Each structure stands twice: as structure tokens, then as C-alpha cells.
Amino acid sequence: MYFIFDMDETLAELYTMFYFIGSLRLKDTVATNATNATNAIPSTLTKSLNKAYKKFVAAILKEEVSNPLGILRPGILKVMSKLDKQKCIIYSNSGHLQSLEFIRDLINLHVGSKLIKQCIHYYHPVRENGDKTWNEIKSIINKNDLKESDVYFFDDLIHKDLYENLTHYYKVPAYNFKASFHRIADIYREAIKDVNSEMYLTYIPLLVNRKPKSIENMIRLFKNKTNISDRSDKVPLPDAGIDMMMSAIKNVKTRKTRKKLST
Ligand SMILES: [Mg+2]
Asked: Ligand 1 center to residue 7 CA distance, Å?
């Protein structure tokens, strides 16, 4: 069985996250729009940013487990823990691959295995016309005898071709809680402690188009560009979308047991 998840408003709400992820994955993020510029980024900077990224992922996960930030849809980590040994894929219309990979990294770190196997973003080579289709899923999974009933699909939107073809299409309610910028900024500051600030500030304009005077200045710039009001709204509780995912998992497990009993 294959579990395929949309990202935005289904697995997570990344509105607050773009500049944090984009800056830590600076080279890859910038490579999408300006190839020449990325060659200029020193490998020492990329290496120390990679380390900072790992710390950032671990620290965000720690919060999501204990005192949720709400980047991940509440309840999603429990769903993932139940999915062990299924093949999971993130299939998103986001153009920022590093955002998909961030969600993958959080989930895989939590479950302690490579549960999420593939991240298919908008510019992935299998993508054809923008909308998600059964044909694309067939090329993503690349298995000759794949049936329409082998896929469990979750999305907050209806993608017509998939909706008509798939046996198990779950349209979940859109999850759109915006995580607190300042809580994430605190985690980010801690994660980049060992990054050479001068070097970082030299190359960050590739992402933000302007040279900040200090790290604090850079974080403020992220905030202005994100345009988020930092009210301290409470993270919502697991909703009907989580119930749908849990019942899909149950459905798969029952089918398996029945199969075993009948053979
Ligand atoms: Mg979506």
C-alpha cells in the first residue's frame, strides 16, 4: 500500500517557515533561480549551515512533541508512527523542494526510519501539467501492476483526475494555523550559533536581496517578508483530518488481516 500526502494545509502549514528553511538550505534554495550565484557560496558556509539545519530540525521536532508549534498538523506525528513499513510519499505543488524535505526530515527523525521515501515537488521531472494526476502517481511509484486501489491519498483540495481515478481519495479539512514567528526565531538563533555570521551575512542577500547589518537584522527582515502577526493563538487540537488518516490506516490493516485469514 502507498500513502501519498499533499504538504501544504494537509501535513503542515509552512507559512512562517520559508526564510528559516531557505536560509539554512541557502545553496539549494538559491540554485532554483540563480545558478551562477550559488557557485559563489563557500563550501565552508554550506557545511556549517548543514550542521545548523540538523540542529534546527531536531529542536523543532522536540517542540512539536512537547509543546507544539503547530507547523505540523496536530496529530500528524501519531499518524506517522502508525504508518511504519508503509511506503509514504509527499506530493506537493510547492516549488520549494527544501520545504518538503524539511517536513520529511521532521517525520523521519520522529519515527526513526526512512518512512517518507520520496518528495515530489512542483518542478520534479515527473510533473507534467501542474495538476496532480494518476499518470504522475504511476511514474512516481513506477510499478507495473499498480492499481488505483493501492494508493491512499490525502489532500485538502480536490484534484479532479486523481479524485476520479483513485479508490481511496481523502479530502481533509485545510489546516491553516500559522506557527509563532518568535518561537521559531528563538530555535533558529540557537541553531545558527556556530555559523560564521560575517560570512552568512555576505551571502544571505542571494535569498533576501539585501544585506542585513546583523543576524538580528536578518531575522527581522525574515519577519517583515513573512508578514505575520505574532498573536499567541493556541495550536488547535487534532481534527477530522487526523481521524480520516487514522481510519485509512485501520482500513489497510483490516484488509491485510482478512487476506491472511483467507489464505
Ligand atoms: Mg494543500
From this structure: 6
Q: Which of 146, 168, 142 is nearest to 155 (CA)?
A: 168
Q: Do 189 and 215 meet the contact criterion of CB atoms below 8 Å apart?
A: yes
pLDDT of 121-165, one tens digit each? 999 999 988 899 999 999 999 999 999 999 999 999 999 999 999
pLDDT given for residue 38 in this prediction: 72
Give the model's pLDDT for residue 34: 61
CA of 210 to the centre of ligand 1 (A): 31
The residues spanned by each domain of the chain are 2-262
Q: What is the DSSP letter of 70?
A: S
C-alpha of residue 11 to centroid of ligand 1, in Å: 8
Q: Give 262's Cβ-side CA count (13 Å radius).
A: 6
**Cβ atoms of residues 16 and 179 within 8 Å:** yes
Check whether 261 has a pLDDT greater than 80: no
